[in-house]
Write a structure and sequence with these properties.
single chain; 73 residues; mainly alpha
């Protein structure tokens, strides 16, 4: 015969396992949504830059010999 204490412990363990499984599932779903949204956000950023006539490439005028913005040499 199973004691009351054993039943309470088993119920608590079942709740903890169910909660852990629920959280794991939520993390998986969030990761999937994030993975899908990241390329969309990147594409939107590139479209916005293209609309302004800009790109992510650095300008040709940059060199290692230009002065720092602070004026340090």
């Amino acid at each position: 015969m199973t004691s009351h204490v054993d039943l309470v412990i088993a119920a608590r363990l079942a709740r903890v396992r169910a909660e852990a499984e629920r959280k794991r599932q939520e993390r998986e779903e969030f990761a999937a949504r994030r993975a899908k949204g990241l390329p969309k956000r990147h594409a939107a950023k590139l479209r916005a830059l293209a609309d302004r006539g800009r790109s992510l490439a650095p300008p040709d005028s940059l060199s290692n010999e230009t002065l720092a913005a602070s004026g340090a040499q």
